[in-house]
Write a structure and sequence with these properties.
The complex is a heterodimer of chains A (362) and B (342). Chain A is α+β, with helices and mostly antiparallel strands. Helices cover 63% and strands 12% of the residues of chain A. Chain A contains 12 helices and 11 strands. In chain B, the strands form 2 sheets. In chain B, strands 4-3-2-1-7-6-5 form a 7-stranded antiparallel sheet. Chain B has a 4-stranded mixed sheet with strand order 8-9-11-10, with helices on both faces. Chain B has 2 domains: 88 residues, Pleckstrin-homology domain (PH domain)/Phosphotyrosine-binding domain (PTB) (PH-domain like); 215 residues, no CATH class. About 5% of the residues of chain B have low confidence. In chain B, a hairpin with a 7-residue loop joins strand 1 and strand 2. In chain B, helix 2 packs across helix 3, helix 7 packs across helix 10 and helix 9 runs parallel beside helix 11. Chain B is of the alpha+beta class and 342 residues long. The chains are: A alpha+beta (362), B alpha+beta (342). Chains A and B meet through helix 2, helix 3, strand 4 and helix 10 of A and helix 2, helix 3 and helix 8 of B.
């Protein structure tokens, strides 16, 4: 039951040298076996129980949701799994709730207290984000082996505090650089068992994605302005017409910006995963922006038409497309990875990330 | 007997095995029939039923079997007397999921109409008067800081209104310090505002419109109703709760989408509060043997004044937006007051 023990040499943390030369690289496409109707039932029961229990059940709901999405992701005939304990998540959420309440209430005691708390929270945030990465990875597994995040706190502060602050100070000119540093920190410090992930995407590649997105946004703005302007001219100068045109322009702009999102997401996923490796294996991501754009647009329309009930179907649709666009180019069989040290991680960091609605997706 | 893949959590290798259940134990055999491990059924964890995700049978040490032959496995499970949890059954049954949806809708509707107002009222009552007064002072400050200007009303009028109000017989309310302040309304126009803690702000324009007599007393009694029942505090609680729920339900999709329903839903609460304040005012007027029609007339005058000044006014518009929203005026309210007095 243990690994190959015929005495051949092991190169790095992957398959033995003899094995590697015999097997040709295989393209293993990821597949997603979940369905919108199945997830809808989970989602509706989650919603009912969470609301009736005033949010306490939400920890169990989160575990159920993640387990559903992980266990329906197949690679090379095996699935992923999520092991987070609902009680740990609930504890983390309760602590975050108290902290946020205290922060909001400190207002009435003294504005200085609020300021001090704000600074303290900002200082603690990178620490919490690092813990959250650790918690998420330590509780994710594939073929029974846990992932692990081993990033150091010091670099975490650079990535989550220093670069974002500098980015804000330089009016977001540093945003692609900060993003690349974040992905580097995340991927270079993640392990599957004892095998390390690595990423070699350059900052200039990130600048490329950001600049193309900004260019598209500019087109939307200019186009929207032109359409709005000509409509205004046609409708006359009455206040009602101007208001309506302005309203339409705002709606158009908002919709446009909402849909730039898929373009950005698609390009970013491709950039990050095409440059990520795991021991001798590589990955390929082929998300097509146009396709994702179409999926997101129809999702929004259907969600609006169904007063939100389409949301679980929408989520399954976009997840399926994004997962099935990914392929692992395996240089050998995937069965020779070995477990690393078990990490024990509390859930406070995970709850903090949840609360502020930040998605740290691998 | 069912085929499975076994993972020992020490390496990523998948071991094809057969899982057999006999005599209260689960036994794993490898491809050659050699027994790999056995464990009592009670020590195993079985994952919830799913359509296409594999079923997982996990041993105590974390090692597990992945089973994709759902039919055979469920047959085995049934034979061992395994009962699945309520939540799992609900998630896998369209009927139960449909019931959950109805239950959710019913709970939300009941909460909106009954539970939330009740909780908000209770919460508002438990807020200590000192904090309420502080909130009122803060609101007054923000009003003075931009919206309203110091009053231009002659001292005599101010004194007359205050004395008449003090002379009114009103229900006991020791928790609030009733004070009447006057301001030049500006964008507020003819209006009266009840601030938390007991301060009532009356605009010069209102005095010019309805005078200092019984009509004004009726309006002040209405505002006193808001104060006594702590409507502004309740409003804060209710609006935040509705906002939070909308954000929870729709926030995943878009935060802007969430604010629209929240704003619309909160407006209904203020209509309830207006009705309650009207009833309070009618009570007070009757107690003091003052004509209730005076209040109805005052409201009518206010509505006419707003209609004249507002060219965009649509006929039969229930709730005006913008600065009129602090004092929604409707046909119904005026009629209800007239009927209450007769």
């Amino acid at each position: 039951m243990q690994g190959n023990n015929q005495g051949s040499h092991y190169i790095g943390d992957g398959t033995p040298a003899s094995d590697m030369m015999q097997t040709a690289p295989r393209n293993l496409q990821l597949s997603f076996t979940g369905s919108g109707s199945e997830y809808f039932r989970i989602w509706i029961v989650n919603a009912l129980l969470s609301i009736v229990t005033l949010g306490i059940y939400s920890a169990w709901a989160k575990v159920r949701t993640l387990q559903y999405f992980y266990r329906n992701t197949r690679l090379d005939g095996a699935t992923f799994d999520y092991h987070g304990k609902p009680t740990a998540i609930l504890k983390g959420r309760a602590i975050m709730f108290v902290l946020v309440l205290a922060y909001n209430a400190s207002h009435h005691v003294s504005p200085y207290l609020t300021l001090i708390l704000a600074v303290a929270l900002a200082a603690a945030f990178p620490y919490l984000l690092v813990r959250s990465l650790r918690f998420r990875m330590a509780n994710s597994s594939y073929r029974g082996l846990r992932f692990a995040f081993t990033g150091k706190d010091a670099e975490g502060y650079k990535v989550f505090l220093l670069w974002p602050v500098l980015t804000a100070l330089t009016l977001y000119l540093l945003a692609p650089f900060a993003h690349q540093r974040f992905k580097r920190y995340q991927h270079n410090n993640t392990h599957f068992g004892t095998a390390p992930f690595a990423i070699d995407a350059t900052a200039s590649a990130f600048y490329g994605v950001y600049l193309r997105t900004v260019f598209m946004a500019a087109i939307f703005l200019i186009g929207g302005g032109l359409v709005g302007g000509s409509l205004a001219a046609a409708a006359g100068r009455t206040p009602q017409a101007m208001a309506m045109v302005f309203g339409m322009m705002m709606i158009g702009l908002y919709l446009g910006l909402m849909l730039i999102g898929p373009y950005f997401t698609a390009r970013l996923q491709n950039l990050v995963w095409n440059h990520t490796t795991l021991a001798p294996h590589r990955f390929r991501s082929e998300v097509r922006a146009g396709q994702l754009f179409f999926i997101v647009l129809t999702n929004y329309i259907l969600i609006a038409l169904t007063l939100g009930l389409f949301y679980p179907f929408a989520r399954v649709r976009s997840t399926r497309y994004r997962v099935e666009s990914m392929t692992m180019i395996a240089a050998g069989p995937l069965d020779a990875f070995v477990a690393g040290e078990q990490q024990q991680v509390g859930a406070l960091g995970d709850a903090a990330v949840d609360w502020y609605d930040i998605d740290i997706a691998l | 007997m069912v085929a499975a893949q076994y993972f020992d959590t020490r390496s990523s290798r998948a071991h094809p095995v057969m899982l057999i259940v006999t005599g209260g134990e689960a036994i794993l055999h490898d491809a050659e029939g050699v027994e790999l491990r056995r464990a009592p059924l009670a020590s195993l964890r079985v994952s919830e039923r799913a359509k296409r995700a594999p079923r997982l049978v996990t041993f105590e040490d974390g090692a597990y079997c992945e089973i994709i032959d759902h039919a055979s496995f469920e047959g085995m499970l049934a034979a061992t007397g395994y009962r699945e949890g309520v939540v799992s059954r609900a998630q896998n049954s369209w009927r139960l999921a449909g019931l959950s949806l109805l239950g959710l809708a019913a709970f939300v509707v009941l909460s909106y109409f009954y539970l939330l107002p009740w909780v908000a009222a209770v919460a508002a009552r438990t807020v200590p008067p000192s904090i309420e007064a502080k909130l009122g002072r803060a609101t007054l400050e923000s009003l003075d800081n931009g919206l309203v200007k110091p009053t231009g009303l002659p001292e005599a009028d101010q004194r007359r209104i205050r004395e008449n109000f003090a002379a009114l017989r009103r229900p006991d309310d020791p928790g609030h310090d009733y004070q009447i302040l006057f301001r030049r309304g500006g964008p507020l126009g003819a209006n009266a505002l009840a601030l938390p803690g007991g301060t009532i702000v009356v605009t010069d324009e209102l005095v010019k419109l309805i005078g200092t007599g019984t009509g004004m007393m009726g309006v002040l009694a209405h505002e006193a109703g808001h104060v006594a029942q702590r409507h502004s505090l309740q409003q804060v609680f209710q609006a935040s709760a509705v906002g939070a729920l909308a954000a929870y339900m729709f926030g995943d999709v878009s935060s802007m989408l969430a604010t629209v329903p929240a704003a619309m839903l909160s407006m209904r609460y203020s209509r309830e509060h207006e009705r309650e304040a009207d009833a309070y005012a009618v009570e007070v007027l009757r107690d003091n043997r003052l004509p209730v029609t005076a209040l109805a007339d005052a409201l009518q005058q206010l509505e006419d004044a707003h209609n004249k000044g507002n060219r965009k006014q649509a006929a039969g518009d229930d709730e005006e937006s913008g600065f009129f929203s602090t004092h929604p005026l409707t046909r119904e309210r005026i009629d209800a007051i007239r009927n209450g007095g007769s």
